[in-house]
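Molecular record:
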Amino acid sequence: RNFYYITILRDPVSRYLSEWRHVQRGATWKASLHVCDGRSPTTEELPSCYTGDDWSGCSLQEFMDCPYNLANNRQVRMLSDLSLVGCYNLSVMPEEQRNKVLLDSAKENLKRMAFFGLTEFQRKTQYLFEKTFNMNFISPFTQYNSTRASSVEIDEQTQQRIEALNFLDMELYDYAKDLFLQRYQYMRQKEHQEARRKRQEQRKILRAKQAHLKEQGENSSSTDYIGNVERW
């Protein structure tokens, strides 16, 4: 079988706020084993942000203040090869080096995927998916801008704090957006070139048919004239 890896990225601030609202309603990631190099992280490597059964009702400030919150830079972490940095063991290498390795790995894995899309560009995502896999969806994608994250009003300082907490995701998203739009433009140009080639081919076939019909008409006129001469 051929397996294709695909993913959808989202604006890091919107994604972060969406996860906070999800956790605030009682969602947990307890079922996630976070297995890396054959083992799950220890509680020392990955402490919990809360002590109870869940973190329901937590404020955005509490959510941002937890230094172990896996919501921070989640997209980079989930797309990168964690074994390159010793998984969840933060003592393997300096933080700056670790961040660079994770970001480079995430970019490389994203680039090598068969397909990726962006939540903020639903129609373009649908178009690229259909062209990539030569298949069509039954109905067009709809761009929903009214989400739980969009309903959260934050001030400029909070916005900057979230961007700082997700600085790796911010850089990854900028890279992904640029690559995504390049692929979209390339596919559109390719589609236009193919359509132009088909039109030229159709015109060529039409001219050939017209020339053939004209030749048949001339031959028919000549045959009729010779036949009449013989009768005369």
Q: What stands out?
A: The chain has one domain: 6-191. Helices lie at 12-24, 60-65, 74-79, 95-112, 122-133, 156-165, 167-231. The CA atoms of residues 80 and 104 lie 8 Å apart. The two ends are 78 Å apart (CA to CA).
